[in-house]
Amino acid sequence: MRALGLSELSHHTVWHELEGTEAEARAEMLRIIDTFGAAGTARGRRRQRRRVYRVSERSYFVRVEKGMSSNEAHFVLAELVADTHGDGLPDTAGDAPETP
Predict the structure, then answer these.
(1) For residues 62 and 36, is the Cβ–Cβ distance under 8 A?
(2) Is 100 part of a structural domain of the chain?
(3) 8-57 per-position pLDDT tens digit
(4) How many domains does the structure of the chain reveal?
(5) What are phi and psi of 24, to 5 degrees?
(6) Does residue 73 lie in a domain region?
(7) How many CA atoms lie within 13 A of 20 on its CB side?
(8) Which superkingdom is the protein from (predicted)?
(9) Is residue 74 part of a domain?
(10) pTM here?
(11) How would you class 8 by CB atoms within 10 Å of its CB: exposed for 0-12, middle for 13-18, buried for 19 or more?
(12) Is residue 60 a contact partner of residue 36, using CB atoms and an 8 Å limit?
């Protein structure tokens, strides 16, 4: 899973390697999304605004606004189909087995 983040001062990319079935990976992605910029504070101060948009079943966009700042992240769940060092995987995407 790749998460592209953006704030006023920085851009960043975070990779999460998720193992398991597609359903298990999607559930873990949603858990990670739910922890990104969690609304509220430990002292009960005014909660920030946190919006989650589903782009597709495998892609979500999160925007967190607090005070005068904001953070955004685009989470994408992808399947590894080619790996030059992976057992059982082809070296190129062109050699990837077709899915039904």
Answers:
(1) yes
(2) no
(3) 556 667 778 888 888 998 999 899 888 887 755 566 566 678 899 999 99
(4) 1
(5) -65, -40
(6) yes
(7) 12
(8) Bacteria
(9) yes
(10) 0.69
(11) exposed
(12) no
